Automatic annotation (TrEMBL), chains A, B, C, D:
This is Gfo/Idh/MocA family oxidoreductase. Residues 4-129 form the Gfo/Idh/MocA-like oxidoreductase N-terminal domain. Gene3D superfamilies: Dihydrodipicolinate Reductase, domain 2, NAD(P)-binding Rossmann-like Domain. It comes from Salicibibacter cibi. The lineage of its organism: Bacteria, Bacillati, Bacillota, Bacilli, Bacillales. One of its GO terms (molecular function) is nucleotide binding.
Length: 379, 379, 379, 379
């Protein structure tokens, strides 16, 4: 049996999510070429060794360069902070490895272009982990749009709402430091919406945005006195026009008290509408104006039918929910399939670049206070 | 212009609901023969005079017999307590008046039969005010069942939940005295469900029920000391078989904390299901297994379309809700139409009797602790 | 008994809504000085006579000037199209009448200022019919914000969604002609949101908006051939900053398939959030982060408690819903109270002007493609 | 390191669910003594070997007796059909193994008593896999009831609704044969409700039930002609009294079109209510009448807080859902903890017996058509 031998760079939250994906892909989907968990990598030797043991990796490393150079690795999976993605991805591509990277793909458009060039030149598989595309309800939305069930799209209205900063007394964290995190809600949450918008609606033409930092400084953590400046956006909102004439209204915030992980997307078209809310990720709402008038209404599709809904045959009977990490498992399975059969997989680095271009146009519009066109060149 | 001249016996909560119905029928529906508010009747002369003034009745009376005998009255509307319905209805019928009575129609099956005989002998119009039938969402449910949208019915699952007695310290009230109120939750709330069950599902075959009085005595009101025995049921539940083979599960309570007026009805059939909740009375949920499998789901129909939903043309544009009292207005308009065109109107006294027969069979089953057949004779 | 004698200019949809308000105020609220329906006015003599009869007005007129000049009128209520509001309101004020006008108050800021000056100079009562303020759930939201239940406001996210233009084949109508209607979704729907935003959040500082007309021409109606240009906005969206630092995201459209009258408002603050949806107008959602952590959640308040919720004592027991037109009744009752007791009533013409100033700033930003400050002077 | 060495008897749907539980317990919860997947057992040698490979078991066996006798096994986990549970469990106990069995524990009360005696005599750990107890929302409900948040319980209203038999043309299956399946909806679905009722409300006193088989015969499967009799219940409903005075209304069906796996539980008490729906298993609804009156409402608790909700620290950040199989993982972890620390774990075989006693009393009441007391002795 042929295995896809994985080297995982990073081992925290996302390292855990990706590891379970490789294992559960083998367990639930039985891919033709299963994953083999060859090496996990982190800078702290003791911690990464413990992670290797708990998660079931064959070996651990403390320098990502060693992993990239190992002959027994086919796929480099990057789940470290964004500022490290570029160097690792390019080195991996040059070493002939397939590359999967967490989102956002890069710190900026320029880096993303370099990364795209590297994987294209190397002829390896490349993928960005926009996991939402593999939530079955989103996959169903995509299919329904392709089936013309909502007709021509007029509106996309989306907001990704969290609340973990709503309390002005909650302490400073590294995610609030622009040097480390790149940006705040925009890069973290709007990135997801932008990818889904491109997936479901189409390419962005122009944008106008606003950002706000509600709490300008926060207490330092660890019992010490003093405050520290918050240097990222707490919220970023933007209006958009798509190439196909649709209108977009997109917002991300960490200050929506009571909203824990509400990635809400509503798309209105000439024949119908669809609505998704990640806090009820197993459901998709759908309205069709082709139903007879007296029985029209938003229906709540429970997206758990093994025989009708993508990915669900691998899991449980109808009405049995899946959870957050399952989308990573679906993603890993699709990637395995692409590697084995040498066929393309999406979202790839070009998708990652396009997303970056939209995010950057929004950032520019915040500064210029006027509309900005969205660039779409690859180099 | 011909008017339908009304005498209203009773002037409290239901007197107010019925009065507005007559006025709003004229206003919104413009019936061929409008209602004329001739006389309102109550035992307290001062109070009933004030009600006549506020509500806009031409005259007031203190003895219902006087109203029944007046030549300038066409319709007697009875909204007094249940123990008075029989005498007034029979006298009205003998005087050749049409009769509308609040539910429950009578204290028992025997009285209901006498009342039915009286109106039939007199050849007058007769109606029981089961107002829920005229909620547009229920009218839509009826239509959809007639259109075979849910196929053969397997299940009716209904509960009418209120919570105004959930606090064991809330004081005694006349509704808790069997001599005055006849029964508790059963006659008050299950009566509505039974009528809707007959309307939407069919006739009852047999029943088995249970009743409970959770709080056996309560503080007397008005600052006095002491307690008084509660002599009615706090809750009554029953299981049922319908003549057509469907299975019923019905429950009423005043102890469902947080449920204010939840008259919930779910009907499951071989092709679909419908769900109604009176706390969202402008909506009807509908599931159809004739939709394609991947887009099946419970849809929420907003029953406010002037062009598609019964009664709604008289009101506002789509998406503009109506409220509780509107069902009484619809009922009054249907009654006006029936009187003017001399055609039958439902639910009539036979429906009221059938409802009483089901309620009484349940009460019997509570005593005998075994299943009871439901009688369906008229005399 | 003293009456408030009303002259109503206009008699279609809003004429019906306002007429029922005067009648139902007398019926349900029994104001100290009840309304008297003196005169209704419209240009078509036959139609307005019929309306007077159906609705119960004492007389009808075909020239609004005649109504304004009548000595037996205290209050002029204007429900005609927006382009007529200014002349009627100023004439009424000069004649010493109180003035109530439908929204939007005027065609532009300049007219609104003249109107405000006229009523202020005349010392009469003046009110704009932003009826949503009198929906009990909105009144409750206002109260809860005043009670500091949601703390400092970070976000207002609001969209008013309808769908009656989603079908590109639906015919041209006067509302799509800028000369007649002034604007499209913006003036019709965003006007409501802007007033509620000012009511619940505070004054606007700056805005940036976009508009779109999805269907540029539509078939003419009445069986004739040919198309006609749509000259108003199908949708207008805007981002905003409030004076208090809150961030606004506001959108109105007539192309949100399946949304019939969804006026959705979400407000997130440092201690909690509230959510309102006009399609479920009897409910208000509320999240409090002051609940213990393991039992926090969005709660759905059924705003029907006679003893706890504004306006509800006049209506029915808990859990019995009210409908669209009830908010007009509440508005009429508050106006009666203000006239009788000579105390101020809101929203008044200054509120109407402020709303107009926000709407106009958005329109300007659509043209200039950059942020616009919101003017707040009265003259 | 000490391992808990598992022998799993059965390898289909439940075998998969239990296997992932052992693996994910090690992965997410890192128990002191992790599970070791020693042997999986099935009658078809080829199939069970494949399962061993896919799922990661060290060995496979075709005779459960061999597994029970192996020295390298600590825990026997039984996921085979109900009619095999008794023999395997008793043999395992006699061999000194801990025993986990799927529900329902046995075919009847008598067998359940023998099984309880065997594990008690052997002094081994014993557990029944009523997995719902480990859904975090149910664990939260239990905690909230213990905190007296809903006060004295008046009502439990629960129904477990599926729809896979709603189509009368769907073919016969072994689950419809009483000889194989024991019972239909009652043993399969009501068993879950009965266990949760005992967990959350208390012991049952008496019951009265009804059963129905809507479709008496069904086409045989596999392209052959002919029909076969359905010998189990399609639906079973029952009313109940609990020892503490609460009233129960319980129903299970496979004919509720559109309900895929709706295990709905509503409990009303003197101070509040809780509501659970397995189709939204990450949520728990809660109403408290101790909130101030104007802000009371049913709140939807998203039960995903790592710091506040049982089991959730092992998974993801707030607002990230878990799925169906996670409850099995929680169960496995609690069992590991109990085995390691030699402390009791619930629900045990006594709980399984109690459940059986309730189910059997309902079945008796269906036959006798009258109320039946629920026996509670252990032998």
């Amino acid at each position: 049996m042929t295995y896809i031998k994985v080297g995982l760079i990073g081992y925290k939250f996302m390292g855990k999510a990706h590891t379970q994906a490789y294992k559960n892909t083998n367990f639930y989907f039985e891919p033709q070429d299963p994953f083999q968990l060859k090496a996990i990598c982190g800078r702290n030797e003791e911690s990464v060794k413990a992670a290797a043991h708990t998660y079931g990796w064959e070996s651990s490393e403390t320098d990502w360069r060693s992993v990239v150079e190992r002959d027994d690795i086919d796929l480099i999976d990057i789940v470290t902070p964004s500022n490290t993605h570029k160097d690792i991805a390019i080195a991996a591509a040059k070493a002939g490895k397939h590359v999967l990277t967490e989102k956002p793909m890069a710190l900026n458009v320029s880096d993303a272009k370099e990364m795209l060039k590297a994987v294209t030149d190397a002829g390896v598989q490349h993928m960005v982990s926009f996991n939402y595309r593999r939530v079955p309800a989103i996959a169903l939305a995509k299919r329904m749009i392709a089936e013309a069930r909502i007709g021509n799209i007029y509106h996309m209205r989306a907001h990704y709402l969290q609340d973990w900063l709503a309390d002005p007394q909650s302490p400073f964290a590294w995610r609030l430091d622009k040097n480390v995190a790149g940006s705040g809600a925009h890069g973290d949450l709007n990135a997801h919406i932008v990818d889904l918008a491109r997936y479901l609606v189409g390419e962005f033409a122009e944008v106008i945005g606003m950002s706000e930092t509600f709490v300008k400084e926060r207490p330092v953590d660890n019992g010490k006195e003093g405050k520290r400046d918050v240097t990222v956006d707490d919220t970023t909102l933007f209006l958009a026009r798509f190439d196909n004439g649709a209108v977009g209204n997109i917002e991300a915030t960490r200050y929506a008290t009571g909203r824990k992980n509400k990635n809400y997307i509503e798309i209105n078209g000439s024949r119908g509408s669809i609505v998704f809310d990640f806090e009820r990720m197993n459901e998709l709402q759908f309205f069709s104006n082709e139903d007879e008038e007296h029985v029209q209404g938003y229906r709540t599709i429970l997206v758990t039918e093994p025989d009708a809904h993508d990915y669900m045959k691998a899991w449980w009977p109808p009405g049995h929910l899946i959870g957050y990490e399952h989308a990573f498992t679906h993603q890993a399975n699709d990637l395995a399939d692409a590697i084995t059969r040498q066929k393309p997989v999406y979202p790839n680095f070009e998708d990652g670049l396009r997303c970056q271009q939209v995010l950057e146009a929004v950032e520019n519009s915040v500064k210029t206070r006027t509309w900005e066109m969205v660039e779409k060149s690859n180099g």
